[in-house]
Amino acid sequence: MSFSQLRLLALLLPAALLGGAYISQYVFDMYPCEMCWWQRWPHFAALVPALLAFLVKAPGLQRTLVAFAAFAIFTSGVIGAFHAGVEYGWWEGLTSCTSTIASGGNFLENLENAPLVRCDVTQWTLFGISLAGYNFLLSCGGAIAILMGIWRNAKN
Predict the structure, then answer these.
(1) Taken in order 127, 79, 38, 150, is the CA torsion positive or negative?
(2) Contact 79, 42 (CB under 8 A)
(3) Contact indicator for 100, 25 with CB cutoff of 8 Å
(4) Is the N or C terminus of the chain more exposed, i.e. has fewer CB atoms within 10 Å?
(5) 34 contact partners, CB below 8 Å, separation of at least 6
(6) Closest CA to 10 of 55, 59, 43, 56
């Protein structure tokens, strides 16, 4: 894989995963739990060096920025693995639930109608794998592919 493709992957992977998260939240009403939010933050962080890698001209700095993006993507995947383990009951999580309260209107009514989202309950699965599990697979797999590609390109 060429470095241009790796750089593009480092930008598109977190953007696509964040896009999917927001589509599931706003289109399919799958509100994120606290650990879902934890998985989003490293993807946001990965976008910054990935974008900067397109703006700088120095090849060495580009590789470093893409590597930083890959490490952030990998961090999200590790959090996804932990979250998936909580969902599958393999271990206990650090939190139990979150709620999203609408702003405006009657606060008490909004509080009563707010969805309660537990971190240990899977909202959706495909082939027995939750969204956190897919984040683990895609993020860790993508980050490893990016880092291996950078390493291979640096050797040549």
Answers:
(1) negative
(2) yes
(3) no
(4) C
(5) 95, 97, 98, 119
(6) 43
Question: CA-CA distance, 49 to 57, in Å (whole number)?
Answer: 13
pLDDT tens-digit series, residues 106-154? 767 766 666 667 677 778 778 988 999 999 999 999 999 999 999 998 8
**Which domains are delineated in the chain?**
3-155 (1.20.1550)
Cα-based distances in Å from 131 to 30, 79, 108, 156: 11, 12, 31, 37
> Could you read off the pLDDT of 76-93 as tens digits, one per residue?
999 999 999 998 888 887
- 3-class secondary-structure state, position 139: helix
- How far is Cα 118 from Cα 141, in angstroms, rounded to an integer? 27
The span from the CA of 19 to the CA of 28, in Å, is 13
How far out from the chain centre does Cα 109 lie? 32
